[in-house]
Amino acid sequence: MKTTAAIAREHGQELTIEEIDLDELRPHELRVRIVASGVCHTDAIVRDGVYPTPLPAVLGHEGAGVVEAVGQHVTTAKVGDHVVLAAAYCGHCRQCISGNMVYCENLFAQDFGGRRDDGSTAFSSNGEPISSHFFGQSSFAAYANVTETSIVVVDPDLPLETIGPLGCGLQTGAGAVLNELKPKIGSTAAVIGTGAVGFGALMAAAAADCRLVIAIDINDARLELAREMGATHTINSKTSNMLDEIAKISASGVDYIVDTTANPSVLHDAAQALAIRGTLATVGAAAPGTEASFEIGGSLIKGWTFKTIVQGSSIPQEFIPRLIGLWRAGRFPFDRLIKQYPLDQINQAFTDSAEGRVIKPVVMH
Fold this sequence. Notes:
26% of the residues lie in helices and 26% in strands. The protein is an alpha/beta fold. The protein has 2 domains: 2-167 and 333-364, Quinone Oxidoreductase, Chain A, domain 1 (Alpha-Beta Complex), CATH 3.90.180; 173-310, NAD(P)-binding Rossmann-like Domain (Rossmann fold, 3-Layer(aba) Sandwich).
């Protein structure tokens, strides 16, 4: 069948809107009519060549839509189901079978390879292969053949134009807090960077009843919104010293810090702001080869922990419904972060996100 899609053809260039071909379903795939898809920082860094998905490619990995056809071996969803789309995983490696599918040993092939396991692509244009199955979905298309492991079935009364962003960025930030750090009630937390991932972490820390939730950024408008979304304190690290300001708020340091910037100098400073037995976690997508340095002599007695977290250490089929439950209870108001764009304005959505004018752009099909 034919479908309309936004295609990344050259690194660093705008996406082009084209009509392309979508092939037949494979046995473990579902054809999904995409209603909406969030625009994520990971889409931008793949477009720009930081991660190695072959171009041309249909990107997009925060899709939401309706199942229109299912492969013969699909058991998790049926025609007519409403779904959120998350990252794919192989299902058979040691990490997958132990329940850690977000740390799938074949993650890059499954999510960034642009091909099925047999080397084929679902999309083509006049015989030219176009990379598909980005995070198992490639949701910057009106229709996509989606890997079954990416499917999360949701209640049909949920607004599909709203819930797509739960598939990656918001799940990553919230999961880092709720699945991995698991802060105790009354503990202290800080979040560095108030993009979609950072807001996910911030709202989750507030939902976990942290006593202090410190939002750190260089954008005053975002910091003001952070106050409304659960932050007890805010710090503009461009106009003031982050370490000095944290010390004023909590002289003993912070129990948990989530960094979304992947900036080595920021990570270096954040480690110094930890309380005894504190944990610093990074969820930012750094370029391969990026390194950070930490002082380990005097800090040895703090017994602190540094960890990297992928996709919020989530099982999407379990965690996304949990986030939806928090949202319905008024404790995870992520819908306030969204601005909608028609597909033909997708490049403006990328620009607005990169320039900090919008926290979570959502492209409508």
